[in-house]
Amino acid sequence: MNEQPMNEQESLRLITEMIGKAKKSIHETGVSAMLWGSVIALCGFVTFAEMHWRFYIGFDVWVLTLLALLPQVFISIRERKQRRVLTHTQEAMNAVWLVYGLSIFALVFYFNTVTEPVTRELAGRGIRVFDNDRLRSVPIPSHGSLLLLLYGIPTLVTGIAQRFRPMKLGAVVCYACFVVSCYVTTEWDMFLNGIAGVCNWLIPGLILWQRHRAGIKAAHV
Amino acid sequence: MFKDLDPILHSQLRLAVMSLLIAVKEAEFTFLKEKTGATAGNLSVQVQKLKEAGYIEVQKQFKDNYPQTLCRVTQTGIDAFEKYVRALQGYIGK
């Protein structure tokens, strides 16, 4: 870059070019999205299978969401070390996903401390809350529906803010799953959780990963 | 009457650095070097000038035992940049 005098048009062109370069240099790896998409999809589909075909794998598969925190911490530290630039959007998205993570664990805490004891109490009185025939059951909202509702929020925010269409579409699928889940039984809610995991995060994560790899290859040509 | 263009900003490399930093929250020196295509020496001098004008903050630290220089634009820098762009638009509009 030389230091020759610039006229007004050249100055504006330089500003536009540099702002464009800064924006184009941001590439998400998609690793976190793939991790959580896979975990949520696995947990949803396994729980659905357990409920539908009446078997038990020996442990609560949703424990995997806690275990997934370990690689997530590792991924976050690694990406932070590799990052050479932080945009305002990235900072805002980090805050959104942090709040989402806290909200999910708060919601699970609520399930375990409020709705589960109530369900057991009602079961003791012969009332089945989560029955195959929901018309005869007490209308307590299903856990799966509430999770679906929450999944869609950070995904749609990210999709809009990053102008990333696969995440916007994933979030739309997630909200559709939420609506459907209001009319089906709990086991199908779990199946919809699996679908949401795939559409919300796994597929967008794979697309981001491919773009990231293509970006690395292009930089080394 | 045309407004005077800020001499600190009306320089190719300094304007390029400010434009990059306006678009992000913070950036490493190596990022600025790559995007502007400037030499480390020249960039370092221009970054220092922007810092002395109060337009950017420069934070030096170590990352994995290597020195890391982080740059971010200040509110004074944002105000000056906005004023500079308005002045440019004024010239073009005339």
From TrEMBL, chain A:
Keywords: Membrane, Transmembrane, Transmembrane helix. The keyword Transmembrane applies. It comes from the Bacteria. The chain crosses the membrane at residues 31-49, 55-75, 95-112, 140-157, 169-186, 192-209. This is Uncharacterized protein. It comes from Flaviaesturariibacter amylovorans.
TrEMBL record, chain B:
Residues 13-92 form the Winged helix DNA-binding domain. InterPro entries: WH-like_DNA-bd_sf (IPR036388), WH_DNA-bd_dom (IPR027395), WH_DNA-bd_sf (IPR036390). Pfam families: HTH_34. This is Transcriptional regulator. It comes from Flaviaesturariibacter amylovorans. The lineage of its organism: Bacteria, Pseudomonadati, Bacteroidota, Chitinophagia, Chitinophagales.
